[in-house]
Amino acid sequence: MAVRKIIRMGHPNLRHTAAEVPSTSIGSDELSRLIDDMIDTLHDYGGIGLAAPQIDEPLRLAIIEIPGGPSRYGDLTPLPLTTFINPNIEVLNQDSAGFWEGCLSVPGLRGYVERPQHIRVDYTTVENQSATLELQGFCATVFQHEFDHLDGKLYIDHIKDRTKLVFEEEYIRYWAEESND
Ligand code: NI
């Protein structure tokens, strides 16, 4: 098991555009080891997604794992741990909704971000197959957040109302009861 260090806001490498994963490296021992490290790291830090640039690997690669069931984001459809190689997002409907987002690279903070809620994701699987997922609601937000990391973007870049960038403790005290709308 190799838990890697997650780099944090301020590290310049979080702000770079990551390179496509070459199709020749998909299935290689090196890429499989990197994905294993990302899984170990996500489980150690705790979270629902991790992009390779967050462990200072400048590749278009991310993992997402959404626990199902009731949550503060509503009743979620679970997504078992999935690896997304060279993902692309197409927005199917511009209608947006906001959620309080957090990020392992921005520890201790939360921010309210509005994003489109109906997207399609085209990506390559670890078996080097093309795949497509259609996502709505909170899941659409999660995927946009994770894949933003591949373009050097953080959720804080999308916050329109800066009074809604808050510490976690204050989030729980003052904001958690507000409904997500
Ligand atoms: Ni993040």
Which structural class do the helices and strands define? alpha+beta
Number of domains: 1
Give unreliable regions as ranges: none
Run of helices and strands: HEEEEEEEHEH
Q: Using the CA coordinates, give the radius of gyration.
A: 16 Å
Average pLDDT reading = 95
Extended strand count: 8
Hey, roughly how much beta strand do the residues contain?
A: 35-45%
Query: Which hetero compounds are present in the coordinates?
Result: nickel (II) ion
The rounded distance between the terminal residues' Cα atoms is 40 Å
The CATH architecture can be given as Alpha-Beta Complex
What's the CATH class, please?
A: Alpha Beta
Biggest beta-sheet profile: 6 strands, antiparallel
Q: Briefly note the CATH topology name.
A: Peptide Deformylase
Number of helices: 3
Shape: globular
The CATH H-level superfamily is Peptide deformylase
Helix content: 10-25%
